[in-house]
Amino acid sequence: MVKKILISFCFCAVALVATAQNEPYKNPDLTPSERAWDLLKRMTLEEKISQMKNGSPAIERLGIPAYNWWNEALHGVARAGKATVFPQAIGLAATFDNQAVHETFSIVSDEARAKYHDFQRKGERDGYKGLTFWTPNINIYRDPRWGRGMETYGEDPYLTSLMGLAVVKGLQGDGTGKYDKTHACAKHYAVHSGPEWNRHSFDAKNISQRDLWETYLPAFKTLVTEGKVKEVMCAYNRYEGEPCCSNKQLLIRILREDWGYDDIVVSDCGAIGDFYYPNHHETHPTAAAASADAVVSGTDLECGGSYSSLNEAVRKGLISEDKINESVFRLLRARFQLGMFDDNTLVSWSEIPYSVVESKEHVAKALEMARKSMVLLTNKNNILPLSKSVRKVAVLGPNANDSVMLWANYNGFPTKSVTILEGIRNKLPEGAVYYEKGCDFVNTQTVFSYFDCCSYDGKKGFKATFWNNKELEGEAVAVGHFSEPLNFGNGGNTVFMPGVNLHDFSARFESVYTPKESGEVSFIISADDGSRLFIDGEEVYSEWHNGATREKMYNLNAVKGKAYKVVLEYFQAGGEASLKFDIGIKKEINYKEMADKAAEADVIIFVGGLSSSLEGEEMPVDLPGFRKGDRTNIDLPQVQEEMLKALKKTGKPVVFVLCSGSTLALPWEAENLDAIIEAWYPGQQGGTAVADVLFGDYNPAGRLPLTFYASSSDLPDFEDYDMSNRTYRYFKGRPLFPFGHGLSYTTFDYGKAKADKKILRAGEGLTLTIPLKNIGKLSGDEVVQVYLRNPGDKEGPIKTLRAFRRISLEAGQAEDVLFELPVSTFEWFNPATNRMEVLPGKYELLYGGTSDEKALQRLTVTLKK
């Protein structure tokens, strides 16, 4: 009898197991939607809500693994260790080569898949290790004072649309496979471009329907309707009084209803808390009310902690479980689309080997994109390219020997970066390059650093050890090595190292300092929160408490050749985190002394501009001309201008290599310097790319995706989102350098364009043929640009980009450049319907290698009803 019972029990157990294995959500042959609905109905309300936060916990009883939705890939896989670092987004825009950008992000998604599966094998599921990437940033860079604008593709809606589309398709794949490669995210929807300092309370209001539909929405519409982007991130600020993450017009009427979007909307990080936090938007009384409104409006996933209150919101009748189901369905479906619940043998992307990460081919692509991004702004008397037989070159400036500057923000960590100084040295014989930092970015004092006199275990710099507690205790979570002065911050939610908490952590930095000369040297520290310094085991400095400490110095009378053991300890206790540390001599800049030394060279190269330590996302920067990462003016910092003026007085040619994520007012520099190159933040191969352009190994052809204004007085109020007198499309003044500007070492000649028809009937497009010839002595690229103007619309843009193509031509080569212009080319704002429509009328097509009116040719076409 007992035997019969046992046999019967075993049969039942086997049957139950078989049934469990056959549950529809576990069946890879079903669609992601079918699987998501089946899994959803098996979840409790609490389990559903737990999946609506970026750090979604495991639900073991259903086999749902933990997942963190937050990952970044702005210009390479970011914040998770080794990765290829390409030029910052604004530099990618300057290539005017959307095909090359697509190829770049196919590489990025290869590295993303390889890293993801490697993390999975190791059981690592925390932040920055998933397949959902919160990029691209397709906000319109309407004002160059916005510090975060470097993450965008510039000021033009069409250029932004095509670049964003290239990113999405490169990340997500072509859609023909069983599983998506990764998921991209269009952000920050929709009317968002600073200021940073008040973004948690700012209301972008009184915006015309024309500006909304003609400027702020086109790129989002393109990525949703053409790119099939799988995520959209709503912005921090309010739009017309209502927070973007609960904005009914943006999220329901436009995104969901007009555009038919049925994928995930994610909040920017902490944006739901802004609904009810004091001194933020304060549009909602409680977390429950805020969370319910956000979900009802269509925000499915929260980056933050407010959605924990959704249980309370359901109990109070603020939201129904059916609404929660809609959001959770989208979240589950996305994970099925990525193959996260299936065996790797079914997911072809899992076969991408880890060896692709920062492979030789990927680094070569980083160099190609850096070269393509270089914009030659001026070149008087053809001073460039420089001869490699030059006797001596002087290199100065705060960006010359800074590898971290090359990476910008939202970056990965390359194994090797080539600084601009190193790139120049690699072109010339040993001893031909004299280098002096000369000045800092803003301060009239500068540190003459001795950091390179420090080494640990034979490597220059400091060993770093991190713990995810404030006591420097237990098992270390990360160990690294830093060969340049320490400059850390958690702005933009950036961790100090992969694996380290954003808050509540500690670190120890260790090295041996061996001075080359005897004399006083300063150990320069600023930190938020605590820091303390030990030299040869003795504590010589301590600010071991919560809160920020302004820059402090400990002075040591160092003896030449003596080895000093240096240990710096740090802890972070919540909120903002920062740590800066250097060793050297700090003194007032002597411009004449620096210039006199440089005057011994045949040519002077000054590498300056800005840095992502100054401009960026909601940063703790309080310096003249800067506020929270934004700029209060667009002038080149005075200390750099004074240095350039002193260098020019030497009578030697002066070349300015400008590194920045935005434009600057450079009227003196444009008038007086021999050449200016805009290098942006060019990625890990930036130094080689700059040197290739300087010495003629690459003919520059980048174009400006932004207008360079001559003065801050050209700009309207930063907080005014009206497009009047903004960007090349509406600016009535005279720019210093116009949108689309960029010089070459060769010359291109444009012939008379021909259209296959001058009168278009309803629904018709046209073929535009533009004859182009390289009439110079060098091969090179030209960026052919086509603009549209509606002469009958006095309220609309002066002109607006409608097509472009980057063309390579050998010296003497000619080509007819063909543009197939679809009927959508002639979409224009219709004030009668407050929408973009193809409107009948007479239009001008303007074409050339810039947006400058004087350099453009034109032809007229007529659209009939």
UniProtKB/TrEMBL annotation:
Domain PA14: 457-599
GO molecular function, one term: alpha-L-arabinofuranosidase activity
Name by which UniProt lists this protein: PA14 domain-containing protein
Family the UniProt entry places it in: Belongs to the glycosyl hydrolase 3 family.
UniProt KW keywords: Hydrolase, Signal
Residue stretches spanning the membrane: none
Pfam families noted in UniProt: Fn3-like, Glyco_hydro_3, Glyco_hydro_3_C, PA14
Annotated GO biological process: arabinan catabolic process; xylan catabolic process
Superkingdom field: Bacteria
PROSITE patterns: PA14
Keyword Signal: yes
